[in-house]
Amino acid sequence: MGQSEVAQKVEQLHVLLAKIQREYAPAVFANSFGAEDMVLTDLITRYYPHIAMFTLDTGRLPQETYNLMQQIKDRYGVSLQVYFPEAAAVESYIAQNGPNGFYQNVELRKRCCYIRKVEPLRRALAGKGAWITGMRREQAVTRDGLSISTFDAENNLQKFNPLCEWSNTEVWAYLKQYNVPYNKLHDRFYPSIGCAPCTRAITPGEDIRSGRWWWENSGSKECGLHVGKAAWIK
């Protein structure tokens, strides 16, 4: 991947991000600190100050993710809005199912994801005009139909996936070219990083998201942030 090709991709991102900032205010970027999100973090913090950034702290993130959050604050001088799960819901879940009940079956895992991610996301998106994600089509079979822009009826706003057509090679070319910080778990073969107990390293040749909820089949590997309400247990 040459620098000229990366530059062309970046120019397309500038056009889209400028449009989002101008036409969909207040727009927000949901930052989960993956490699893709760091491309958007670098661009938004430097050029699009009116696009706010937030993150969902599930309470079970790896230490490396918290380290990166601090790096972002130190390097870019920005503070992300952090949304936490409702304490009472977490306490109730753990009382009924134990701290690791999500390993037992898909339903309990989805319930945990709903409490720790989906419900906080809805609070984060309330009253917003658009939200931006770092999702790419290459990431999973559940994302191969991803489009750059779509209306999110669940949250009543426009949703943008600016990097949906980017390859993993293009993402890393940007990070290296612009010396962007990234989660150090990537260096230990964690291409997709979520909560610590639900994420593991992968081996060469495995699907990029095979390290997420590895005990489930590939068709269920979403946390609920990017699928319809009907698929999730409340």
Automatic annotation (TrEMBL):
Gene3D superfamilies (alphabetical): HUPs
Annotated binding of [4Fe-4S] cluster, by residue: C112, C113, C195, C198
GO terms of molecular function: 4 iron, 4 sulfur cluster binding; adenylyl-sulfate reductase (thioredoxin) activity; metal ion binding; phosphoadenylyl-sulfate reductase (thioredoxin) activity
Origin superkingdom: Bacteria
SUPFAM superfamilies to which the protein is assigned, alphabetical: Adenine nucleotide alpha hydrolases-like (SSF52402)
Alphabetically ordered keywords of this record: Cytoplasm, Iron, Iron-sulfur, Metal-binding, Oxidoreductase
Active site: C223 (nucleophile)
Cofactor note: Binds 1 [4Fe-4S] cluster per subunit.
Subcellular locations according to the entry: Cytoplasm
Cofactor: [4Fe-4S] cluster
The Phosphoadenosine phosphosulphate reductase domain, residue ranges: 28-201
One Gene Ontology CC term in the entry: cytoplasm
Pathway: Sulfur metabolism; hydrogen sulfide biosynthesis; sulfite from sulfate
Main subcellular location of this protein, as a coarse class: cytoplasm
Classification via InterPro entries: APS_reductase (IPR011798), PAPS/APS_Rdtase (IPR004511), PAPS_reduct_dom (IPR002500), Rossmann-like_a/b/a_fold (IPR014729)
Keyword Oxidoreductase: yes
One GO term (biological process): cysteine biosynthetic process
EC number per UniProt: 1.8.4.10
Function: Catalyzes the formation of sulfite from adenosine 5'-phosphosulfate (APS) using thioredoxin as an electron donor.
Matching HAMAP family: CysH
Name of this chain's protein: Adenosine 5'-phosphosulfate reductase
Species of origin: Nitrosomonas communis
Gene that encodes it: cysH
